[in-house]
Amino acid sequence: xxxxxxxxxxxxxxxxxxxxxxxxxxxxxxxxxxxxxxxxxxxxxxxxxxxxxxxxxxxxxxxxxxxxxxxxxxxxxxxxxxxxxxxxxxxxxxxxxxxxxxxxxxxxxxxxxxxxxxxxxxxxxxxxxxxxxxxxxxxxxxxxxxxxxxxxxxxxxxxxxxxxxxxxxxxxxxxxxxxxxxxxxxxxxxxxxxxxxxxxxxxxxxxxxxxxxxxxxxxxxxxxxxxxxxxxxxxxxxxxxxxxxxxxxxxxxxxxxxxxxxxxxxxxxxxxxxxxxxxxxxxxxxxxxxxxxxxxxxxxxxxxxxxxxxxxxxxxxxxxxxxxxxxxxxxxxxxxxxxxxxxxxxxxxxxxxxxxxxxxxxxxxxxxxxxxxxxxxxxxxxxxxxxxxxxxxxxxxxxxxxxxxxxxxxxxxxxxxxxxxxxxxxxxxxxxxxxxxxxxxxxxxxxxxxxxxxxxxxxxxxxxxxxxxxxxxxxxxxxxxxxxxxxxxxxxxxxxxxxxxxxxxxxxxxxxxxxxxxx
Length: 519
Hints:
This protein has about 525 residues and is of the alpha/beta class. The protein folds into three domains: about 1-245, 2-enoyl-CoA Hydratase, Chain A, domain 1 (Alpha-Beta Complex), CATH 3.90.226; about 270-430 and about 470-505, 2-enoyl-CoA Hydratase, Chain A, domain 1 (Alpha-Beta Complex), CATH 3.90.226; about 435-470. The protein is built from 21 helices and 16 strands. The longest helix has 18 residues, at about 450-470. The protein is elongated, with a radius of gyration of 27 Å.
């Protein structure tokens, strides 16, 4: 009989812990259209795979009446499970328990699963829904945040870290997601900021709403803080599962290989005509990407931020590949501060986790002007150059059309250790475009020609001469800077063959404590 009572006590305590802040708090949470911490975990993980730990931990605070607000698990559910059969560690903050505010005990639980993720080499996924540090605990709560941040830092580049924002994420709470590899926000009820609208009003006098200050749309389009947005919590968690399918468990493993049902030698004649003959006319680079990747499956990262460059994951012959591509139909595909840092961070993620990189180039240069110079375009452009030059994973580059000046160099050129560099027949690889070049090279002669028709004819002849001599891919190929000029319709096959050849690539950077990337 005594054993039965003990079993009943265990079952009752488990039920109590799983109720978080209680039925009323859960109903209030549901009324806002939000799911509870454990409901989110079960949507994220394979059915029946979640193994929860530290369910019975409670806080130790007795000040400000906290001794009367004790909940089993103390506001966060933590444990392990699987996504498509692969191990992950997860923590989910529970907003029904004291607003999801972080206590010393909550931090202890989060650190526990982060330590396990590092020890076992598995991704760490954080589902954030917290009002920030628990004020009643003072410095203990702050110390808890610092413990989490230190683990984020040490885990960076060792295991993938993904943050999902499902509600408020304010103050110190924003820095853990900012230290992780990817952030996902929901469009309806998630927001991130250092200080809220009331503090902003008192300090700066600005009237701003929560959404305007730190909503998903703001961070997806203006700041670039979030990498993905989703309309609902269910959609967000489905996207996280999809993201996990493209990346490896840790920095010692390769990304999973998926059986490929798309023929590797599939050709597409539309590619031969897709790029306009006029180099100043735009087209959509995504049309090329969706055509050449396996089954048209491309997961874009930061799709609404710095749209002049495209970053994302796809597969070639079932192998996960990171793609970086200039986008000619947005700012003509120029590199600016935002595009440079967006691409640089993506390159560094791929390199850290053994994901080969494909670069599709159509870039007229860096964006000029005082705005860019004052914003540090020199430093930001150097970040992209640094990322490509440091990367040791297989790198394949295809120059689709323009590749001018310094922007040619930073887009994975041969001298930054590009392994295979291809070009389409209409590619222009030069210091600058023909029009600008002739304006410089023939400036003195042009001043002497007064007749407009003669001047136009002279310019046309010189531009054609420059185009043939310096801007064609064959000039670069003759110097060994391009490995081959390829037919556009065969691009998919040539890329796959190149990556197949590079599977045994081994390249090691010089031994050092760490590099000093321009920040």
